[in-house]
Fold this protein.
Amino acid sequence: MTIDKSLARKISGAYQSTYGQLVRFFRSRLGNSNDADDLSQDVFTLWLNRKAQDPVKENRAYLFKIASNVLIDHWRRNHQQSQSHTSIDEVSHEQNFEQTTADPSEILEHQQRIARLSEAIDLLPPRRREAFLLYRFDGLSQSEIAERMEISISMVEKHIAAALVHCKKHLDDQSKYP
């Protein structure tokens, strides 16, 4: 692959001015410096390997768009890996739980917890509730939710995070004062 010198200078300049910002962007979302460094490098690699011939008008905006996509891919890969690494102990525990007859008090407690969770979800603002339900119960990705709801991925992240905090707080408050 050959890169003309003006593009190489442009990328070099963008690397020098934006690399640290990208690392901070990833680190703040992942809490891991090694992954932040690797993903920041991936952003520039993707820029170098892009097929489009149109010039990039706003380097920083373009790089952060790539970074958002790289982050989503990273989360998706990690989620798939964690799903595929279910241990035999977890599977056998789930089977044992299903095979045993649960104590009626445990069943009642479980039903009450589900009712409190349903109540917490009902108390969410409509758009937040929609994003949360699409993510947790319909299994849509954040980018799919953003597209469906016609909002940014960042806004989807905020809705989901706020909904999780709200539900946890509601469940905690309800368990303190039954």
Summary: The longest helix spans residues 5-30. The CA atoms of residues 67 and 73 lie 10 Å apart. Helices lie at 5-30, 33-48, 59-84, 88-99, 104-122, 126-136, 142-149, 153-176.
